[in-house]
Structures are given as C-alpha cells and as structure tokens.
UniProtKB/TrEMBL annotation:
UniProt-annotated catalytic positions: H696
Keywords, ordered alphabetically: Amino-acid biosynthesis, Metal-binding, Methionine biosynthesis, Methyltransferase, Repeat, Transferase, Zinc
Function: Catalyzes the transfer of a methyl group from 5-methyltetrahydrofolate to homocysteine resulting in methionine formation.
Binding site for Zn(2+): H643, C645, E667, C728
Residues engaged in binding L-methionine: I432, G433, S434, E485, D600
Residue span(s) of domain Cobalamin-independent methionine synthase MetE N-terminal: 5-318
Similarity annotation: Belongs to the vitamin-B12 independent methionine synthase family.
Pathway(s): Amino-acid biosynthesis; L-methionine biosynthesis via de novo pathway; L-methionine from L-homocysteine (MetE route): step 1/1
Keyword set includes Transferase: yes
Cobalamin-independent methionine synthase MetE C-terminal/archaeal domain boundaries: 427-750
One Pfam family in the UniProt entry: Meth_synt_2
Protein name: 5-methyltetrahydropteroyltriglutamate--homocysteine methyltransferase
Length: 756
C-alpha cells in the first residue's frame, strides 16, 4: 500500500488574493515592506498548515513567490543582471525592479522579459545570463529562510527549487557564453544551496526539471547528464541530503533511462499529461527509489476518479515496490484556485464535482490511504452521468461533414470578389476591436451587473459610447471601423456567460503573472448558443456609419484554451461545440448586414503541445479545422478577419494560412519583423496586418516611425495584401494617446499610398 503523499507546489496568491492586494499597495507605497512580508508569511503558513493537517508527507517550501519562481531562482543563484543591482535598492525592491521595471530617483530600467510557462497561462520571468555573472548561493537565502519559517511552525518541509537544466534552458544569453559554460559554476551553486538547507535540518531537496518534458536533443541530454552526475554525488556526499527529481507537464521519454540510472532518491513523474509515463515505468524503475506518481491533476478543477487512479497504481506496483510509491499531484497546484468552499453561488451538486487545491490535497491522502468510505463516495459521484448530453448539440455535431470545414470559393477567388465589393484603398486602416475602457465604461457595466441601472440605461450609455467611437474613427479617417467593445469585460467571459454549458465561479482565481490573476470559466456541459450575443451592438454600430463596421467575436480555440475544460469528452469535441455556437453568431451577423467579421484567436498558440512531434496530431489537426468550421458557410463577399496577440508563428505559418481567414492582424511591433521573412518564404496568401505600433506602452509612435515600419513590411508583403493597424486592442490605453497614435497611423498609410 502506498501511504506517502507529495505536493509540488501550493497556490500563493491568497484565498482572497491577499498577496495581490498587499503587493499592489506596497507598489503604491501605501504599506511598508515589513507589512508585505507579514502578509506573505501568513499565506505561507496557511498553505503549510493545510497540507500538514491533511497529512501530506512531502510538503514543499520555497514554492512561495512574490512574483515568480524562476525569477526567485535567478536571485537565489546570484544571476541578477548588473543594471538592477546598480540601482542600489533593497533586495526586495531590486527583485521587483527586475520583475516589472523601475522608474524613479534611483534610475530607469525596464523589466526582464516575461514568457508563458510551458503549456499553462502562467508566465515566468526570463533569466538573463551575461558573461560576467558569477553564480553562487549565500548561506542565508530564501529557501533556508522559508524552511526555517515552516520548522518554527512545527512543519518539516521539502525545499523545492527549479533545477539547473531547466534554468539554463529558459535563460537568455547576452554574451559569448552558452548554457554549458555555466554548468560547473551552477553545480557548485546548487551544492552551496543544499549545504545551507542541510545545515538548517532539511532531509530532502526537490529539484524541478520540467524542461525534460520537451524534446531533448543529444547535446541537451549530455548537458543534463553531466550536470547531474556531478551534482548528485556532491549532494549526497557533501550536503548529506536526499534528492527528488521532479518533472511535470508531460513525460520524459528522451531522458528516462538516464534519469533512472543517475541515482536520484525519488523521481517525480506526471501521469496526467505524460502520455508515455506509464509505459516508461513499465519498462523498469530503479530499486530503492521513491516514485512520486503525479496522478492527481494539478491543472484542472475536477475531482479525481479514485477507481481509475487505483487501477493505475496497481499497474505501477508491478515494477515499483509498493512502499516506494508516493501519491502526488501532476504539477504544482499553483494552476488551480484555493478551495471550493469559497464558492457560495454554485450548488453543492455542482461543487461536489470540483476539487481545487485544498480539496486535491485531501484527495491525495484519501487515495494513498485507501480510505473505504471516501472510495465509496467517489464511486457514487462517478457512477452517474454528470451532465446529460444535449441532443441538439449531439445532432449538430454528428451532422458535420467534410464540407463544413471548407469555405468556398477558394481564397484567391474570394479576394478578388472582396476587393471589388469593398473598394478599400491600398493599405486599409483598421483597429483590433476595443477602444479605451475608461472608468465610466467600466462603471456602467458594473452598475448594470449590480442591478442599480436598468437594461435600457445600460444600453443607452453603451450606444452613446459606440456613436462617439464611430465618429472619432470617421474623423481620424480609418477605413474599417469597430464598435469599441464597451459591453465586454473580457473576450472569453463575454461569450462564455451567454453560452449554454458554461459555469462561472465566484472565486476561482489563478495567478497568471505577478499580481495578475484570471478566473477561467468552466465548461460544464454541451455548449450551444441560445440567442445572438453581439448582433444587437454590431447592427446598431453599422447603422451609425456608411463605412464598413467589423463584427467582433472570439474564436472557439481561444474560448476553450482560456476555460477549465471538461475531462469526460475530448478537447476536440468541446472546441467543435463552441465552433458551432460561434458559427451561428457569424451567420447571424452576416444576415444582419455585417460585411466584415473578425474572429479573434488570441490564444491559439497557447496549447501547442510541448513536443513538436505532437503539434499536429494532438492539436493543430483539429484546432485549425475548428476555426474553419466557424466561418466556412459565409458568403464569398463576407470578409473574415482573425487576430493573434503574438507573432511567434514562424513554425506554424502554414497552419495559420490554413485557417483560411481573409485577413489576419497580429503583433509585430515588438518583434524584429522576422515574421515577415517567414510570411514571404511560406508564400502566405492571407492578407496581413502586422501591428505597426505597440499598444502595451503609452508611447505615441511618430508618422515617420510607422511609415518606416510599413516600408519594411512592403519589402516582404505584396502591397495589395497589407493592412495597417495597431498590434492589439486599445482597451488598456487612454483616449489621448490612442487618438494621437491613430492619427499618425492614418497619416502614415496615406503617405505610403501617395508614394507607391
Ligand atoms: N478584439 C479584442 C480587443 O481588441 C482582441 C483582444 C486580444 O487580442 N487579446 O480587445
Ligand atoms: Zn491581441
């Protein structure tokens, strides 16, 4: 019987987002560093106590972070770029300077870049390694402090830290030195760290190496092996500490044999996302080593099916001594909310199916102990069908045929028809959808939600804003207009809240980056559309202008990727259901006179599998067709736009073209326009609007700057295919800078028209 349990990481933002609010106050100098530290200590204590009360064996420490664990690791190892140290600020202020930039009396430095953490919606800070950085760990460090803090509370923890291989994998290198050149120094730094922990009384250290779930090249494998050969023996001999190698977000097929041979004391593997993990373990597992079996999903909010988990454990016990099997989470619980007890509005029938972090640690314990009563209750929960199938949705799905994925006539034919119909000038100008969401816009929505104003009042206000927004766009001389999205708080929630099959939580906040949290909606049942969701607004907007008004929708892949998906049916099926619902909206918009419809796929790239070999079979092969399903039935003269909030699609460029949209706008202003070469090389046929300025900053781009960017684009893109637009929606910007920027954008387009 497996009796031990392990958690990789616990949420830290606070059950009521205490850390978010305290940090924001601290940034505004409304509270002191000591007060912020106090909140942090309370949150850490809360998590440890919950885990200790649940009887978890391996409780992590150092999983707490004021901003991000990768940034913590950089600071722990001494990998702090000189420009931050040069500010001469306190350690905490220096840390925040690197996390989100600093502008003040001590100087002016930008933040380190931020990137998506594997296939999650969490973002990490990218470490920067220059040639003259000296890696080393102080005796008194964050890991030791937090270990001691837990010890004082009577809780023995396992300090956890991002491993050397993953750290080197994620870092950027500014000089001549490459990953391998830092290996020796880094090994010594980890030894210093382990010694400090061992001195403080730690028996174990957990080293997280999620980068092992990517495709690992021969060279990378050699680097990994050389680091750990050295490190493991030193940790055992010099630091006298036991080592967990913790992996997550997939299987480690490329290095499994090496991992087994290196001599770790425990190996943590992901059985939820790791398709091959079971197969790997069945091929053999080292003796006298703990297997931390990550079987409780750390990423989704559904209860675990104990029977299925037990069946898996039986299989594992063939190769692993039973007493060495530890029941664990598949990844850090950072990616799920705190507790379902904070949900007051959902019925207990529904909540019975949910397990957030605090419920998940109880699940670990119940599975490990083989608790009969718990098993019975769990069996009952899974015995009945959670939701009845929606017959109409099932019928619609069954009726989809090949032709539903093919828009006719083909692209070239449509392009001709559309150019004739719209008679737009060369380099048509447009925006991505939203206009500044001023506080009055937000107040109007909030008042309507609270019920303090009537629907008429709410609509009237928004219509006034739409009319103003249109007038502004006409004055600016934009060619294709938008209504401004004043009725939307969020591009997914707006649709989710109107679709059947979706549930909204009250408190299911998950950290996205720093103090920013998101509250993904839950796909509960089959998804369908009851009523038009956007038609009223778009029709009103079109009635206010002779110019063309773009309808504005969110695409099915993005809606699903930013939700907690179901686990009882495939992602493909869920996406198709959403696609059919959005398709109804598309056709309704068209029927009501909307001639251009934009379907945003802001998050398409997000769930691209971590292994290249899985990209198509596991994802693109259904995600791209799902987008086509949405628009395949429109008339040839209806123009379909899509938008993506990034430009890293060089490697999936043909798939993007295969979405068969007529126009795509995307972020390009911050990238070095490399994407343009890729477009040219791929013979990209979709018309393109690479964003000509960065809406993430308050800066107003000059006409010259925009013209320059456009000229560069024209080297690579046919002039008939180039659109001119900002790189994303304007909702986070102020009116003044928006107007100034758009004025320059239109002027630049006009100048270019006059000169080609
Ligand atoms: N249409 C949306 C907007 O303009 C797109 C947002 C996004 O790409 N994230 O706000
Ligand atoms: Zn965007």
């Amino acid at each position: 019987m497996a009796t031990r349990t392990s958690v990789i990481g616990f949420p830290r933002i606070g059950k009521n987002r205490e850390l978010k609010f305290a940090s924001e106050k601290y940034f505004k100098a409304e509270i002191s560093a000591a007060e912020l530290e106090k909140t942090a200590a309370e949150l850490r204590a809360y998590g440890w106590k919950k885990q200790s009360d649940a009887g978890i064996t391996f409780i992590p420490s150092n999983d707490f972070s004021f901003y991000d664990n990768v940034l913590d690791t950089a600071f722990l190892l001494g990998a702090v770029p000189a420009r931050y140290k040069a500010l001469g600020l306190s350690p905490l202020e220096t840390y925040f300077a690197a996390a989100h930039g600093y502008q003040g009396s001590a100087g002016d430095v930008k933040a380190l870049p931020m990137k998506k953490w594997f296939n999650t919606n969490y973002h990490y800070i990218v470490p920067e390694l220059s040639d003259n950085i000296k890696l080393s760990v102080a005796d008194q460090n964050k890991a030791v402090t937090e270990f001691n803090e837990a010890k004082t509370l009577g809780i023995k923890t396992v300090p956890t830290v991002i491993g050397a291989y993953t750290f080197l994998h994620l870092a950027t290198y500014t000089g001549q030195k490459k990953a391998g050149d830092f290996a020796t120094e880094l090994v010594n730094a980890y030894v210093q760290l382990a010694m400090s922990l061992s001195t403080a009384g730690a028996e174990w250290i957990s080293i997280a190496e999620p980068a092992l779930v990517f495709d690992v090249s021969a060279e990378e494998k050699a680097l990994f092996a050389s680091i750990y050969k050295d490190l493991i023996s030193k940790l055992h001999k010099e630091a006298n500490i036991k080592i967990i190698l913790q992996t997550y977000f997939g299987d480690i097929r490329d290095v499994y044999n090496e991992v087994c041979e290196l001599g770790f004391d425990a190996i943590g593997l992901d059985f939820v996302e790791g398709k091959k993990t079971l197969e790997l373990v069945e091929s053999g597992f080292p003796k006298d080593t703990f297997l931390i079996a990550g079987i409780v999903n750390g990423k989704n909010i559904w209860r675990a099916d104990y029977q299925k988990k037990n069946e898996l454990l039986v299989k594992l016990a063939v190769k692993v001594e039973e007493q060495n099997i530890v029941i664990g989470t598949s990844c850090s619980l950072l990616h799920v909310p705190y507790t379902t007890t904070s949900e007051e509005k959902l019925s207990s029938d529904i909540l019975a199916h949910f397990a957030y972090a605090e419920e998940k640690i109880v699940e670990l314990k119940e599975i490990a102990s083989g608790d009969e009563k718990a098993l019975e209750a769990n069996k009952k929960l899974f015995a009945s069908e959670r939701v009845a199938k929606d017959a109409a949705v099932q019928k619609a799905l069954a009726e989809i045929s090949e032709s539903d994925f093919v828009r006719k006539p083909d692209f070239a034919e449509r392009e001709k028809i559309q150019h004739k119909t719209f008679k737009l000038p060369l380099f048509p100008t447009t925006t991505i959808g939203s206009f500044p969401q001023t506080s009055e816009v937000r107040a109007n929505r909030a008042a309507y939600k609270k019920g303090t104003i009537s629907r008429e009042q709410y609509v009237e206000f928004n219509q006034k804003k739409i009319a103003e927004c249109i007038k502004l766009q006409e004055e600016l001389g934009l060619d294709v207009l938008v209504h401004g999205e004043f009725e939307r708080n969020d591009m997914v929630e707006y649709f989710g809240s109107q679709l059947n099959g979706y549930l909204f939580t009250q408190n299911a906040w998950v950290q996205s980056y720093g103090t920013r949290c998101v509250k993904p909606p839950v796909v509960w049942g089959d998804v369908s559309r009851n009523n038009p969701m956007t038609v009223e607004w778009s029709v009103f907007a079109q009635s206010q202008t002779k110019k063309i008004m773009k309808g504005m929708l969110t695409g099915p892949v993005t809606i699903l990727n930013w939700s907690f998906p179901r686990e009882d049916i495939s992602l493909k099926e869920q996406t198709q259901q959403i696609a059919l619902a959005i398709r109804e909206e598309v056709l309704d918009l068209e029927k009501n006179g909307i001639k251009i419809i934009q379907i945003d796929e802001a998050a398409l790239r997000e769930k691209l599998p971590l292994r290249r070999s899985d990209w198509h079979t596991e994802y693109l092969d259904w995600a791209i067709p799902a987008f086509r399903l949405v628009h395949s039935k429109v008339l040839p003269q209806t123009q379909i736009h899509t938008h993506m909030c990034y430009s890293e699609f060089n490697d999936i460029i043909r798939d993007i073209d295969a979405m068969d949209a007529d126009v795509i706008t995307f972020e390009a202003s911050r990238a070095d326009l490399k994407i343009l070469d890729a477009l040219k090389e791929a013979n990209f046929r979709t018309e393109v609007g690479p964003g000509v300025y960065d809406i993430h900053s308050a800066r107003v781009p000059s006409v010259e700057e925009i013209t320059d960017a456009l000229k560069k684009m024209l080297d690579k893109v046919q002039k008939e295919k180039l659109w001119v637009n900002p790189d994303c929606g304007l909702k986070t910007r102020g009116n003044e800078e928006t107007i100034a920027s758009l004025k320059n954008l239109v002027a630049a387009a006009k100048e270019l028209r006059a000169n080609v």
